[in-house]
Design brief:
single chain; mainly beta; 1% helix
């Protein structure tokens, strides 16, 4: 073959000084509850979470409980010992609150009680902590420690160092790291009734230790000083590092992603990730932050000193708006090559790294890029709408690949790579190109294709090339021949749009108008809009690393759990709620697990890397009324006299992440015929007569 007749070399003009621009996208969703009088101007001293998911906010004027929707205020009128809350802790079942006047309040899930401690002149409750057996301890500012249970003080210990105690953290059996107003100490609980000093840390002499926490990894501790940074300790109680550059530190907390959140006066909230990257949030939290707490659902709660409550959440959807004049905005194709992304727009080709730095290549295609693919030699293959194929090699030379002179053959719809070949979908068949020498082989209806107009191609891990065409026949190419899969899809007008395989090696097929199919041998699972899919028109499919298949529709996304087929839909991607129009098959996953989707106005990145795994919701019955009378339901069995009854049940489950997405599964045995799914928080059963009934309640978050 005379390759010179088939390959036309084109010099790609690269800007002499490539432009590098950071793709600006908001990494976090930040909510300031400034519109709620309960917390908008509060002085917040402590934040914690109970076992049901409620967030408790301790202020100088009372205690506030938040369920994701409603703030409820508690004061001494609700049996609090005092309105000024200085510290708090969840013991796994109950909540404990320490007060500035030295007293303690206890909440058992229903009512508050004043805990019997002899506060005297001990000063405020400075800190709560739990030992390795789960026992709750508290410290007073003057150095006294109390071991507590829900009824009484079990043990009272005195710290003999004659120093003010600001914070403490258990560090093994009977050992406590104690932060004082003049340094860090390792101490031991001794009987009877005292705590003795084991070790001083001379590096901290004269420093105020404001907070000590155990690392999430379990491999050591952080000890924050007020003005000399944060010390890092290992489990052998050696200081192995120091994070400097912070003053007037008030509190610290580490989240599940090993990001350290630092509350300061003057610089607001600051975070440091495990790589040392520092981020500041003062413009959102205000200059003075007293408390910070990392919740289990991935939320960071910030207590301002007079500036109220702020919540920071990881943003799953990040929108990148490209500069239209420079690059164009209509992202029609995306693919990834290691640490780089290649992006096709209506104006040309863009190359970025995964951090978003752009180097722009001048458009020499004079056509819309429809598909991008990289091969095993580092070449980028570029398909266009009407001008055929191009290859950009590692030396930045652009080559025109003349696969055919016909207009339909030059209309490229899809690309995929497998082994030493590039497979090219067109409007008149499939072209296979050998990467090493550009040898060409065509597949058409005459070769066994169901249809010549190809919607998409997909190479699975076994080397099969799956074919999406204007046909209801599932087909693939294997061992150089076209083979058909005999499956009854039940739809003669079916047209497949895209394929993907999940982590369990099942094949998924999207369609234009007939929904989503999971293929297992000769059997099908069909998911349509009747099963929760946003639309039956599936423009692209792509899997994530969390056992989901993402379905791209024209203006929305569906996420399907491959384990139970639960479907979650998304049609809003930022706070503006503006509609996003997605392009067909413009989808790719980078090496860090993020999904990139092309839209008419830029790129949407789905970033679940910092999302916490779903925490099961715990529902509770909040009220039971029988014939309009409130009934105590602490016992699990209620016996009524014969008659007719109306039973009303109120219930709740807390999701701080997405409170409006909570769904309840309810079923009254002996009354209901089937399980009911509802987002209502109450149910009424009428004309309950003689019999035995059992109420079953569970709750689902937005992810099922």
């Amino acid at each position: 073959m005379d390759f010179n007749k088939h390959i036309k070399y084109i010099l790609l003009l690269i800007l002499l000084n490539p432009i590098y621009i950071k793709l600006h996208s908001q990494e976090y969703e930040i909510t300031n509850f400034s519109d709620n009088k309960a917390v908008s101007e509060a002085y917040i001293y402590t934040i914690s979470r109970d076992s049901l998911g409620y967030i408790w906010i301790g202020t100088g004027d009372g205690l506030i409980r938040f369920d994701g929707k409603i703030f409820k205020i508690y004061t001494t009128e609700d049996s609090l010992s005092d309105n000024f809350i200085s510290s708090s802790i969840n013991d796994g079942v109950n909540m404990w609150f320490g007060h500035m006047n030295g007293t303690v309040s206890f909440f058992n899930g229903k009512v508050f009680s004043k805990y019997a401690v002899n506060a005297g002149d001990q000063g405020p409750v400075s800190c709560f902590g739990k030992d390795e057996n789960g026992n709750v301890w508290m410290s007073y500012y003057n150095g006294q420690f109390l071991k507590l249970n829900h009824k009484r003080v079990i043990e009272e210990l005195s710290f003999k160092a004659s120093k003010s105690v600001l914070t403490f953290q258990f560090a093994g059996k009977n050992r406590i790291l104690i932060g004082t107003g003049s340094g860090l100490l390792l101490s031991e609980i001794k009987s009877p009734g005292e705590i003795i000093e084991l070790k001083k840390f001379p590096e901290t002499d004269g420093m105020q230790i404001v907070k000590i926490i155990k690392k999430v990894s379990g491999e050591g501790y952080y000890a924050a000083t007020a003005n000399e940074g944060i010390f890092i300790l290992n489990n052998d109680m050696d200081i192995i590092g120091q994070i400097q550059g912070f003053t007037e530190v008030q509190a610290i907390h580490e989240d599940q992603n090993n990001i350290l959140w630092i509350a300061t006066f003057g610089n607001g909230l600051v975070s440091i990730d495990e790589h040392g990257k520092k981020s500041e949030f003062k413009e959102y939290t205000g200059e003075n932050v007293k408390a910070v707490f990392a919740g289990t659902e991935g939320n960071i709660w910030i207590g301002g000193y007079g500036s109220g409550l702020t919540r920071i959440s990881n943003r799953v959807f990040r929108i990148i708006n490209l500069d239209y004049d420079l690059y164009g905005r209509d992202v029609t194709a995306i693919c990834h090559d290691g640490q780089h992304a290649w992006i096709g727009t209506e104006k040309g080709l863009i190359k970025t790294d995964l951090k978003g730095n752009i180097s722009y290549y001048k458009n020499t295609f004079n056509d819309k890029i429809t598909s991008l693919c990289t091969d095993n030699k580092g070449n980028l293959w570029i398909g266009t709408e009407t001008d055929g194929m191009f290859v950009l090699d590692s030396s930045s030379r652009l080559k025109k690949i003349n696969i055919n002179s016909g207009s339909l053959e030059k209309s490229i719809t899809s690309l995929t790579a497998s082994g030493g070949f590039i497979w090219i979908g067109t409007k008149k068949g499939i072209c296979r190109v050998r990467i090493s020498d550009y040898q060409i082989q065509w597949y058409t209806i005459g070769s066994g294709l169901p249809h010549n107009s190809i919607n998409g191609l997909y190479a699975d891990s076994t080397g099969k090339i799956w074919i999406c065409s204007r046909s209801n026949i599932l087909a693939y190419i294997s061992e150089k021949s076209v083979k058909r899969l005999n499956i009854n899809t039940g739809s003669s007008g079916l047209s497949f749009s895209d394929f993907t395989t999940d982590e369990r090696s099942f094949l998924w097929a999207g369609s234009f108008g007939s929904g989503l199919y999971r293929i297992d041998g000769d059997s099908l699972v069909v998911i349509t809009s009747q099963n929760g899919l946003y639309s039956d028109f599936c423009h692209a499919l792509i899997t994530d690393s969390r056992e989901h298949v993402w379905v791209v529709h024209q203006d929305a996304l569906s996420r399907v759990d491959i384990k139970n087929f639960f479907v979650r839909t998304f049609d809003k991607f930022d706070q503006s709620g503006e509609k996003i129009i997605f392009n067909v098959k413009a989808a790719s996953r980078d090496d860090e697990g993020r999904i990139w989707l092309g839209t008419k106005k830029g790129i949407i990145i789905i970033d679940q890397t910092k999302e916490t795994r779903d925490i099961p919701l715990i529902p509770e019955i909040t009220s039971l009324r029988i014939n309009n009378e409130e009934v105590e339901f602490s016992t699990r069995r209620i016996v009524l006299k014969p008659g007719k009854y109306t039973i009303e049940i109120d219930y709740n489950a807390v999701s701080q992440k997405e409170p409006d997405m909570v769904t309840y599964r309810i079923f009254m045995e002996g009354y209901d015929q089937q399980v009911e799914l509802t987002r209502l928080n109450s149910i009424i059963y009428r004309n309950i007569s003689d019999g035995t009934y059992k109420f079953n309640l569970s709750a689902l978050n937005g992810d099922g």
